[in-house]
Each structure stands twice: as structure tokens, then as C-alpha cells.
TrEMBL record:
Record-linked PROSITE patterns: FE2OG_OXY (PS51471)
Gene Ontology terms: biological process: DNA alkylation repair
GO molecular function: catalytic activity, acting on DNA; demethylase activity; dioxygenase activity; hydrolase activity; metal ion binding; oxidoreductase activity, acting on paired donors, with incorporation or reduction of molecular oxygen
Keyword Cell inner membrane: no
Keywords of this entry: Dioxygenase, DNA damage, DNA repair, Iron, Magnesium, Metal-binding, Oxidoreductase
Name the UniProt record assigns to this protein: Alpha-ketoglutarate-dependent dioxygenase AlkB
InterPro entries, per database record: AlkB-like, AlkB-like_sf, ALKBH3, Oxoglu/Fe-dep_dioxygenase_dom
Pfam family, one: 2OG-FeII_Oxy_2
Cofactor(s) required for function per UniProt: Fe(2+)
Residues in Fe2OG dioxygenase domain copies: 104-201
Length: 202
């Protein structure tokens, strides 16, 4: 098999309408993906995520971290985070993702799912801090997980398995018309790191 046959020539839009979700396939070699996975797992300042749901503070098993080029504040789930400054590995991955997507990003929300029991419910990333209809680039390291989209009106769903070292980009009207989620599964017993590069508007 040709070494580069695993890389897609051009991204594929997974959505049938009302938005753009480009799947770029695997953008890191196995060696690079393994290296970044190990470094980020052990060097990122991971913390359990917190959300206020129906007036109650909920702490998740999933861990998160918020990094950016400056100490931006970012609010979601009625909680506000202040960004840590990008480290060397995140800057390198940001540059790679920017080159691949032909977009620019100034921040990154990282998620650490310890195994398949941890997931994310249906939601859209429509926070006022984010660039309207801007690109959100999602890089997967570690365990393969199924990722889903559901149209807010028609309830039509689209699912894609995201592989170790793969890149998916949501942009245009996607957040307006579609929800997305990471469903839990009993089949996955390894951690997954998800880096979501995005643009905060000041």
C-alpha cells in the first residue's frame, strides 16, 4: 500500500445541506499522532469540566483544557474559562491544521475522554465569543470514536468514525442548523484526546 494512500486528496462534506462539515481524513502519520498523544496526555493542564444545569453545578468525568494565543475568556454552560498560553506542541498542531484547512485560529479547547463511557450530549457551538459561522477544526488523537450530527428541524442524522490523527472541520451555517455529539460506547477502553481549534472574537 502506498504510504500516502490513507490521506484524502480533498475534504469531503459530510452534511447534505445547511452547513459544511469537511472530513480531511488522517493528517498526521501514525508516528506523529502517537507522539502528540503521549505529550499532550502528560503535559496539558487537564481539569474536570464544570457546567451549570438547571441551576446545579455538575462536574464531568471528562477533562478539559483551554489554551490560546492570549488569555481569552470563553463562556459556555454558564461557566467562564480563562485561556492558558499555547505551548510548543499546540502551536505546531495549530500551524498544521491552518495549513490543511486554509483557515486561521487563535484558541483551542481540548477534551480528554478516558474511555468510551465518557461522551458529549447533543449541542451546538454557538457561544457569543466565537466567530460567527467561523471554522472549528477538530483533531482526534487516541481511540477512534463515532461522532454524530443531527439536523435541528428534520432530525436527520449523519455519523462518522473519527480516526487517530484525523481532522474534521465544522464551518458556515453548521452550528445554526445542526447539533453534534460524541455518543458513549462500551466498545472503547482507551483514552481519546480531541483538540478543537477555534476563533475567539474580542
Amino acid at each position: 500500500m502506498d504510504l500516502f494512500s490513507q490521506f484524502t486528496d480533498s475534504p469531503i462534506n459530510l452534511l447534505p445541506k445547511d452547513g459544511t462539515v469537511n472530513y480531511h481524513g488522517i493528517v498526521l502519520s501514525r508516528e506523529e499522532a502517537d507522539k502528540y498523544y503521549d505529550v499532550l496526555l502528560n503535559s496539558i493542564a487537564w481539569k474536570n469540566d464544570e457546567a451549570i444545569v438547571f441551576g446545579k453545578l455538575i462536574t464531568t468525568k471528562r477533562k478539559v483544557a483551554w489554551y490560546a494565543e492570549k488569555p481569552f475568556e470563553y463562556s459556555y454552560s454558564n461557566r467562564t474559562k480563562t485561556a492558558l498560553i499555547f505551548n510548543e506542541e499546540l502551536l505546531a498542531l495549530k500551524e498544521l491544521v491552518e495549513k490543511e484547512t486554509k483557515e486561521t485560529y487563535n484558541s483551542c479547547l481540548l477534551n480528554l475522554y478516558h474511555d468510551g463511557s465518557e461522551g458529549m450530549a447533543w449541542h451546538s457551538d454557538g457561544e457569543k465569543d466565537l466567530k460567527k459561522n467561523g471554522a472549528i477544526a477538530s483533531l482526534t488523537l487516541g481511540a477512534e470514536r463515532k461522532f454524530g450530527f443531527k439536523h435541528k428541524e428534520t432530525k436527520e442524522t449523519v455519523y462518522k468514525v473519527l480516526e487517530h490523527g484525523s481532522l474534521l472541520v465544522m464551518k458556515d451555517e453548521t452550528q445554526t442548523y445542526w447539533l453534534h455529539r460524541l455518543p458513549p460506547t462500551k466498545k472503547v477502553h482507551r483514552p481519546r484526546i480531541n483538540l478543537t481549534f477555534r476563533t475567539i472574537e474580542e
